[in-house]
Each structure stands twice: as C-alpha cells, then as structure tokens.
Task: inverse folding
C-alpha cells in the first residue's frame, strides 16, 4: 500500500478514511483550513497520521502566507499563530501538537528567507513521514518478541498503517509477528461509535491476508474467559509520564477484562505519543465528539428522539493495567515513571 499521507507537489495527499472500506480513495488537501477540517472530520485519523497532517498543514499555511508579501517577521508571527490554531483541531492525540511544535521550532531557528522557510518546512514534513515508517517497523520488531507462538491478538480501534504513514503501531506488532509465524491471528473489536476496528483494521488485515475475526465491543471478555485471547495490543493517543494511556474509548474496558483474565495488555506507540509534560492521565484532555456519532449508524437514526447523549472519544487506561509499552527504543516496563524518563534520556 502507498503511504497513508504524503507531501507531493505542494499538497498533502491522504487516504480518505471516512469511506474505507468501501473505497480506497486519496484526496489532496491544498490549504491550511482544509487540513484543519480534514483532521476534525477524520478524513485523516490515528495519532501518528494526524501528527504528519499537522506538519503538512503548517507547510500549507506557509505557502499561503508567502503569497501575501509580508515582512519576514510578520510572516513568522502569522504562521506560528495559524500553526497553533491547527493544533486545536483535535485535542487528545499529542502527536499533532508534537509535530506542529517541531515545525514551529524549525521556523524559529531558520536563518533562511521566506521562500527558504517554506521549502525547509516541506522537506521536514517529508522527513517525519519516512521516520514514522522506520519507527513503526522498530516497534513491530520489538513487539513481535513478546507475541507467543500461534497467538490470538486482540486489538481495539485501528492502530495500523492507516493510522500512521505506514506499517502501523499495534498492527505493526501484528505484521512483524505474522512475518515470523503465520499461525498468528487477530480478533478486532468493532470500536463504536465510528467503527474503526470494523471498517479499517479488518480492511488492512484482509488486504495483507492476515487472519482476522471481527467481534463487537461487548464480546471481548467472553472470548477471554474461553481462553481464546493470548494477548492484547492497542495503540495510544497520549501517554502521561507515569504510563497512563489515552486511547480510543473502550480501551480501558478491554484492559480491565485482560487484567481479570491474566492476559498481557500491551500499548504500542512511538515516543512522540508520550507527553512527559503531564504527570498522570487525569491531565489528558478528552475529546467530546458529535452526538450524531452515537445516535446514528450510516446516516440512520438508531435510537429514540429525545434521548440524552455523551460521546467521549477516548478513555484513559491506568498504568497498573499495562504490561508494557512497546516503543521504537524497546519495551518499557513498570515502573513507567522511571522507564519513560530513561527512554527520553537515551534518545
Ligand atoms: O479517533 P481516532 O480514530 O483518531 O482514534 C485512533 C486511536 O485511538 C488509535 O488507537 C491511536 O490514535 C493510535 S494510532 C497508531
């Protein structure tokens, strides 16, 4: 498969994830505001993919501002303002802020003229794309070492190639494990309300011919109790300095069920998903999404008019439920405060 998101001829080309699995369609995002909307409406989704979208978005704003004949100083201050606005398009995944802050750092440190800054931002975005794939392969290889022979791996949401530039984090672990042992298989949670598991995870795995069974969100403890799940691997949107992990709503339930059944529960994520500035998961902002995601499926209302709705997009799994955090520098183990600090000192 081509890259999920790629800078090409001064546009950001990305898979439109709102139409997967019916179509594998690429769209070109041409302005900063279009990027803001693409992130918010989840044309692009998944923490690492929206990080790259953020980096591309800053480039798109830079191209627009270049046409306004501003002074270099005004260009920089306006661009930083727009970059920070772009960072507000989705609040939970820290990769968005991480990549935008990297672009802002580049802007502040550059000695180039406006044209030069525009070029440097685009090149830097492309570098982040390539690094994302390399990092995911490393995560995959570290993770494969803890996958038992012929394992059935349960995953929630989509932390695959389509949530990243390519290969995936949790599904990167699956891909690397399957390459070594083709008796490995996946159970994919449907992941209401937006069904990323049903729509996107199964699509990717079927394409790669990796055996996958789709289950609804309420079924995971049933299969754990039957001894049919050997491990859980999920992605992450933001990990606090103590290892508490925000991921798609429903992940916490899976982690509790895994703990009860003595099943290892791993989080697979790049270090860019770890927010060392926040001490615990209580500080992670949780996105509240539109009520229609809950009241409707495929445009059709599924509940009575007048019902109250709450729709948090993510939950936080406490660190004590996590067996290990699989990163590009190895598998971090509890006590996460120490292992996370050490990982950051080593890079
Ligand atoms: O709302 P989404 O689809 O962007 O949420 C995605 C997830 O929760 C993923 O598990 C997470 O971003 C990790 S992707 C490698």
Result:
């Amino acid at each position: 498969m081509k890259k999920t998101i790629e800078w090409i001829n001064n546009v950001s080309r990305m898979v439109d994830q709102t139409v997967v699995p019916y179509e594998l369609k690429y769209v070109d995002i041409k302005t900063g505001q279009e990027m803001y909307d693409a992130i918010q409406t989840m044309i692009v989704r998944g923490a690492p993919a929206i990080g790259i979208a953020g980096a591309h978005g800053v480039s798109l704003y830079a191209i627009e501002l270049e046409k306004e004949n501003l002074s270099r100083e005004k260009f920089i201050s306006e661009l930083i303002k727009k970059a920070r606005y772009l960072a507000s398009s989705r609040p939970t995944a820290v990769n968005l802020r991480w990549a935008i802050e990297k672009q802002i750092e580049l802007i502040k440190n550059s000695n180039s003229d406006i044209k030069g800054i525009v070029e440097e931002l685009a090149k830097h975005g492309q570098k982040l794309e390539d690094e994302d794939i390399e990092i995911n392969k490393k995560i995959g290889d570290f993770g494969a070492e803890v996958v038992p022979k012929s394992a059935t791996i349960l995953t929630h949401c989509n932390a695959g190639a389509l949530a990243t530039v390519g290969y995936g984090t949790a599904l990167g672990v699956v891909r690397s494990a399957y390459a070594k042992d083709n008796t490995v298989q996946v159970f994919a949670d449907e992941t209401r309300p937006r069904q990323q598991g049903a729509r996107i995870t199964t699509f990717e795995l079927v394409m790669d011919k990796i055996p996958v069974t789709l289950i609804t969100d309420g079924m995971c403890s049933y299969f754990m109790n039957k001894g049919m799940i050997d491990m859980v691997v999920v992605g992450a949107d933001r990990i606090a300095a103590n290892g508490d992990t925000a991921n798609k709503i429903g992940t916490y339930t899976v982690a509790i069920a895994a703990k009860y059944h003595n099943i290892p529960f791993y989080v697979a994520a790049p270090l860019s998903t770890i927010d060392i500035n926040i001490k615990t998961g209580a500080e992670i902002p949780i996105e509240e999404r539109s009520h229609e995601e809950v009241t409707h499926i495929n445009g059709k209302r599924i509940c009575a008019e007048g019902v109250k709705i709450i729709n948090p997009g993510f939950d936080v799994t406490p660190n004590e439920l996590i067996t290990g955090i699989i990163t590009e520098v190895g598998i971090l183990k509890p006590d996460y405060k120490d292992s996370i600090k050490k990982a950051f000192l080593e890079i």
About this structure: Residues 114-144 form the longest helix (31 residues). The chain has two domains: 5-136, 138-345. The pocket of MRU is lined by residues 45-48, 93, 157, 159, 163-164, 169, 196, 235-237, 247-248, 313 (CB under 6 Å).
